[in-house]
Design goal:
Layout lengths: L4 E3 L6 E3 L2 H42 L3 H11 L4 H4 L2 H12 L4 H15 L3 H60 L3 E6 L5 E4 L1 H7 L11 H4 L9 H10 L1 E10 L5 E13 L2 E10 L1 H54 L3 H30 L8 E4 H11 L1 H7 L2 E4 L5 E4 L1 H17 L8 E9 L2 E8 L29 H11 L4 E4 L7 E5 L13
Length: 531
């Protein structure tokens, strides 16, 4: 059955006209037309009757003398009546036989002629009623024609509208199914899931049946958003709510960060909530990486400023020595004092050697991260053995006992640079062992959560906590009389950072020993082999 509708040409919307509305319109128009005709007829007849009555009253109100004059002028001696055969005959029959039929019928006939004065008004009233009837019929015919045209128009347009609606629904469904954001459709009243698109099921690892018919609290999702009654009420009131950095748990217990946007809208007189869920885990990771890089750049700029100041200060000292003793050398040469000239040359040579060592170590430090050997997997024990071989003389001279852990740990990186890290830490531990009668150094590991921490621990002189923050600076020497340039621990920190790790020092104070701990990226503990 074709619905009785009319499709608007402006916006394509559907306007419905049920038959009872058209009937009501016809009834109102017909009643109004008849009432208008009847009212007009009554008003016209009343007006005509009042006019006649006013004329008769005017005649009655004539003065008696005027009436007499009028009778004398008009009737004279009434011969006009008595000379009238019809009137005379009527009067004679009336006197002769007052109850006769003829005597009574003739006056009635005359009176009917007088009453005929109202005939024009009645004729016009009939015409009015006829015209009103024609108007009602014409109105009904127009309404019937409009209604019929509507039916024809609807029959023609309804299939087109249905096709357009199906096309629109199909297009929306394709967008819903292929969207690269997760989409949840909820009932705005109950909060239960009505539909979910494939992208969200894939993102969270749950099947579609896991969502349908459940609330977000039952699903364990969005605990701090729609599952919260206050937030749900706010969404229903405002129609929009947005969250960023919202954590979600996946089916495999991973946590991802999402951007969550909800909108309330109406579909077929029913309110629904559309939730768009976008995975921003990679974006957050990129932001975190960028923040780390920015902080690292700021730290390196600060370090570069300190480096420039330190280098200029420490290189200036040998130059001052050289310049001073060159002056002495000139004076001694002028006096031909060979002995003092030899001392002057010795000071100049020592200062030049010191400057050379400083420049060599600065050059080596600058190459860390720029000039690297290919990364390889190498065991901790192998690296420690190579480092011990480079400091074996110093270790043996001091009588230090070195213990290396036998736990299977694989390091990954530039093998030569990793050896330099342990070499500098071992050399530093032996150098500041102090007067410890039983010197000992331990190379081992600790497991902190999922991270493997490497350590070099000694029982030497220890470090005052007030000075521990300075240890890794350029040319920093807590004992200015100790040998070396003060770049060894700076080199350690640089190599560790290039390998994605961090390094720190711990000591309870002077005489309490020192422990250097550091981490390296990609450090692994191989699974123990079964016997």
């Amino acid at each position: 059955m074709v619905p009785r509708t009319l499709i608007s040409a402006r916006d394509g919307s559907t306007v419905r006209y049920p038959p009872y509305i058209l009937g009501a319109i016809f009834l109102v128009l017909a009643t109004g037309s008849v009432a208008a005709a009847y009212s007009y007829y009554g008003a016209h007849e009343q007006h005509y009757r009042v006019g006649v009555e006013r004329q008769l009253l005017a005649v009655v109100e004539l003065k008696a003398d005027e009436l007499a004059n009028w009778r004398a002028e008009r009737l004279g001696n009434a011969s006009a009546f008595f000379g009238n055969d019809l009137f005379s005959s009527l009067v004679r029959r009336g006197f002769e036989n007052p109850r006769g039929v003829e005597a009574q019928s003739q006056p009635r006939k005359s009176l009917s002629q007088v009453q005929g004065a109202y005939a024009p008004a009645r004729e016009r009233g009939g015409i009015m009623v006829a015209m009103a009837g024609l108007l009602v019929l014409a109105t009904g015919a127009c309404i019937a024609l409009i209604w019929w045209q509507q039916r024809l128009y609807v029959r023609r347009k309804t299939p087109e509208a249905a096709v357009a609606l199906r096309a629109s629904e199909s297009q929306y469904r394709r967008l819903f199914e292929t969207a690269q954001d997760g989409i949840l459709i909820l009932d705005a009243q109950t909060g239960k899931v009505m539909d979910v698109n494939p992208f969200l099921t894939k993102m969270l690892g749950f099947g579609r049946e896991h969502f349908i018919g459940k609330t977000t609290s039952e699903l364990g999702l969005l605990k701090d958003t729609l599952a919260n009654q206050a937030n749900f009420a706010e969404l229903q009131q405002k129609g929009y709510i947005r969250y960023e950095n919202l954590p979600l748990k996946t089916a495999d217990h991973r946590q991802i960060d999402v951007e969550f946007i909800s909108n309330v809208y109406r579909v077929d007189h029913h309110q629904v909530i559309q939730c768009n869920v976008r995975d921003i885990t990679e974006r957050k990771q990129a932001e975190k990486t960028l923040k780390g890089k920015t902080e690292e750049l700021a730290r390196k700029n600060e370090e570069l400023a300190r480096f420039i100041y330190t280098v200029s200060h420490d290189l200036k000292s040998p130059l001052v020595t050289i310049s001073t003793f060159l002056g002495y050398l000139e004076n001694d040469a002028a006096r031909q004092d060979a002995k003092r000239m030899g001392k002057d040359v010795g000071y100049i040579r020592n200062a030049a050697d010191k400057m050379s060592r400083l420049l060599d170590e600065l050059l080596e430090l600058s190459r860390v991260g720029l000039k690297m050997n290919p990364s390889v997997d190498v065991s901790l024990q192998t690296v420690a053995a190579e480092a011990l071989a480079l400091v074996a003389g110093r270790v043996a001279a001091r009588g230090v006992q070195v213990q290396v852990t036998q736990e299977p740990v694989l390091l990954h990186g530039d093998r030569q640079r990793l050896v330099e890290v342990f070499q500098n830490l071992l050399d530093n531990a032996v150098k500041f062992m102090g007067d410890q009668p039983a010197p000992r150094i331990e190379i081992g590991t600790e497991q902190v959560g999922e991270e493997t921490v490497l350590l070099v621990r000694d029982n030497g002189g220890g470090i005052d906590p007030r000075h521990q923050g300075r240890l890794f600076g350029l040319f920093e020497k807590l004992d200015p009389h100790s040998e070396g340039t003060g770049l060894g621990l700076s080199m350690v920190r640089r190599v560790v950072e290039v390998h994605g790790g961090r390094v720190w020092v711990e000591s309870a104070g002077a005489g309490m020993g020192t422990t250097f701990r550091f981490t390296l990226a990609h450090t692994k503990r191989p699974a123990a082999r079964s016997a």
